[in-house]
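Worked Example 4.2. Read the sequence first, then its structure tokens.
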Amino acid sequence: MKVFTVMLAGGSGTRMNSSINKTLIPLCGKTVICRSVEAFSGLTDEMVVVCHPDVMHDLIHEIEGLSLPFHVRYITGGDTRQQSVQNGLLAFEFKPDDIVLIHDAARCLVSPEIIMNVINGIKNFGSAVPGIPVTSTYKLSNEQRFVTGTLDRATLFEIQTPQGFIAADLLNVSLQASKDNFSGTDDASLMEYYGHPVRIVPGSGNNLKLTTQDDLITASMILKGDCKSMRVGMGYDVHRLVEGRKLILCGVEIPWSHGLLGHSDADVALHALMDAMLGAGGLGDIGRHFPDTDDRFKDISSLLLLKETNRLINAAGFAVHNTDITIVAQKPKLLPFIPQMVHSVAEALVINESAVNVKATTTEKLGFEGREEGISAYAVCLLK
């Protein structure tokens, strides 16, 4: 059994007063489409993105920059949502027990829990759609807007996506609906019309569909709420002192007879800082992002790597609040260079110098630092 996903990315953004496709709108450091696609990591085997040809290149550019464990293809949508879904279904080759999920890319806050609820619902009941119980009272009215009845809200649900089905079943009813000229309001309504039971599984109030500017504001508040707690990371690094190398610390060249040995410029202080930043963001370490087996980073300035690390942090929804760096070296004396170091780090991170603290200490001639064999550095970083 495989899980296929049809990602509908045809939203124009008109009701959001946006001049671009709304799935390309940035939201807390990532575009809407990237957030939606990444939500399915580890939960789908293959995905097709259905979109307007005018934005296909931009969507490919965004999505190809992600590290995804599944293959993504791109096709043109139809004149209606129903036709776009059918185009997406026809792009796959299904086996009898395969599952297909249909998701609106505008629901970029969908959680892995909701997606798993849908997948498990399909396995158990043959279909599943996420829904949340309504809390308002709903009235029926006639053409003159007089109330003709009150609906029992205990039986009412607001339905979301992804909607999931046995793939062959949905494809069959979709093709039949085209022949019958039947139009449904969502994928589940097609299944209902042709007699297939549809199971409701738990959704979430956070799984909202971005339609207006207010929705965008709400989504931003939800994301910032998820990230509002402070995140702390610690970094440590050490490099050997050798002749014939420049000594670079916090991006500042220090006049000295020896420099630090490494694949890059071996800026031990910035390496510790980058590890602290990545650790706080839960993004691994510098060896993962800038391996010493990659010639692109040979002798590169660590200030460039720091800026790229800051971009990764920002893309994950964080920003550096402050950092404290301690450099451990018996020699040379670093105190005269600390103001330059602070300025260099603050400029690279685009933060105020008051948020950067750099200290230097010795080991009273103890250890490899004391024997002037190398320099080490510690860093603590707070992300917000």
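Now turn to a second chain, presented in exactly the same format:
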Amino acid sequence: MKLYKQDPFGNALFLKKFLIRFIGAISHQRYQGFNKLHIEGSEIIRNLPDSGVLFVSNHQTYFADVAAMMHVFNAALSGRDDNIKNVGYLWQPKLNLYYVAALETMKSGILPKIFAYTGSISIERTWRSEGKDVNRQVKMSDVSSISKALNDGWVITFPQGTTTPFKPIRRGTAHIIKRNKPIVIPIVIDGFRRAYDKKGLMLKKRNVLQSMVIKKPLDIDYENDSVEKIVEQLQFAIEQHPSLLKVIPVEEYAKQEEALNKKRNFFDFY
């Protein structure tokens, strides 16, 4: 008989809860202090079942994106409407929240290892390793781990597998969707790349308006939709389809920057 409760991967829940509270407390000011986080769609989070949910998102930093989602999801479940004021929502955090991450990233230092304990499903990338292109077989144990996490709770994945924008969606995500039939929730984030370094640990710029838009579940025919169709659907849902990539004229870019600065000033409050 175990002396303490564990998640399906053998992590002690009491330690997991402590680490989520700790990381949440020290990261809160990144999204509700010297930078701001604009949120849309909190009500969608509250209406989801406790398990079998897959969040798909574009990716801008290794850790800041996931940490922000941890804040937003728990705040929404605690009744916050599109805000993360008062970090008390992490007193009883959702412990069956997982995220897919590259194994080499999560083993790259003490902070990543600590962060991994909060819910990382660390997988071996099949296309990239230690900064070099590789071509290796998918490990079935990695696929099984994602399925195990979906059976237990919610899973966050970044299907492009990189922080570089408009890179192709990895077909493995579509296979996971067809295999597990989860509710698929798209998320579109912005501003994280401007605010933090690539790892998302070091602050690069203050007074950046970050945004997170949580969209309605995708309508997927798990039996009949092809992998290619699901991949394209994901690309449009997280706004990373190649057709959306266009060159913005200098004048239009200046207008967008001016509008963004006005938004930053508007959201410059606690």
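Notes for the reader: The beta strands are 36-40, 53-57, 97-102, 120-123, 128-129, 132-133, 154-157, 183-190, 209-214. The longest helix spans residues 13-32.
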